[in-house]
């Protein structure tokens, strides 16, 4: 009878120990993952801001080119401003040789 109680306590202890051990191992893995991610966050943050800065610069360049093209189109082409307006040739009132 005494052996049955000892065996039952041993089984209960093994079940509780296995549960506590698994929980402890899970907590250790979680803590290790947390530490790894925490140390990689500044680098990831820096990379994200670098990517955002690149996109903002590209958008700014495209916007400036668009505004410049619109201003150029609104001012008219160079051909219209470069050529002088034609003037009429005066007609002589008298014809020479008559």
Automatic annotation (TrEMBL):
Residue ranges of the TM segments: 51-74
Taxonomy, superkingdom: Bacteria
Keywords, in A-Z order: Membrane, Transmembrane, Transmembrane helix
Sequence segments annotated as region (Disordered): 74-98
Protein name per UniProt: Uncharacterized protein
């Amino acid at each position: 009878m005494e052996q049955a109680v000892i065996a039952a306590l041993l089984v209960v202890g093994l079940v509780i120990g296995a549960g506590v051990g698994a929980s402890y191992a899970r907590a250790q893995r979680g803590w290790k993952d947390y530490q790894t991610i925490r140390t990689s966050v500044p680098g990831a943050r820096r990379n994200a801001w670098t990517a955002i800065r690149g996109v903002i610069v590209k958008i700014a360049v495209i916007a400036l080119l668009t505004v410049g093209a619109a201003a150029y189109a609104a001012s008219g082409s160079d051909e219209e401003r470069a050529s002088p307006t034609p003037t009429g040739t005066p007609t002589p009132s008298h014809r020479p040789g008559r």
